[in-house]
Specification:
mainly alpha, 5 helices, 66% helix, elongated
């Protein structure tokens, strides 16, 4: 097995930093409700990254795993399409759930804010660094462990 070229590490790390920055921005606005696995919903969030795209956490996840995939090239060729299909299914369910529970304000939001590709300016809202770090601590730990494992693997004789 060949070691990844340093440029793959650079591109992969860039994508991972971009991804986690987006995730921190998003969870600093939305808070703990982003970690729920149930059909409970919070208030409509349309500030910060949620004013530019409806699914910043999922876009962050796709970028994060794509970064790992780039480091382990050609893993990105598998990660990007599989995660995109996976999140497409989740988003369809979430949009139906949110439309049912939040009604017309959410349907208006669907018409104004794109699902995947950001557009327009971000509206300012309350963002909490403490909330963001508290919510992302497990993600940050996982990123550190994955990068550590990839680095250690690169040191092993081939």
């Amino acid at each position: 097995m060949m070691l990844p070229h340093p440029r793959f590490w650079i591109v992969g790390l860039f994508l991972m930093i971009l991804a986690e920055s987006l995730r921190l921005w998003a969870v600093g606005h939305i808070g703990r409700i982003s970690r729920t696995r149930q059909d409970e919903v919070g208030a409509l969030m349309d500030v910060g990254p949620y004013a530019r795209l409806r699914n910043p956490l999922y876009v962050g996840n796709i970028l994060l795993f794509s970064g790992i995939g780039v480091i382990q090239w050609p893993g990105a060729l598998v990660a990007i399409p599989l995660l995109s299909l996976y999140y497409q299914q989740i988003v369809r369910w979430e949009e139906e759930n949110l439309a049912e529970k939040l009604g017309d304000p959410y349907r208006d939001y669907l018409g104004r804010v794109p699902r995947w590709l950001p557009t327009g300016p971000a509206k300012k809202g309350h963002w909490s660094f403490r909330t963001a770090l508290r919510s992302e601590r497990s993600t940050l730990l996982a990123i550190g462990l994955i990068l550590g494992a990839l680095f250690l693997r690169s040191l092993l004789p081939q």
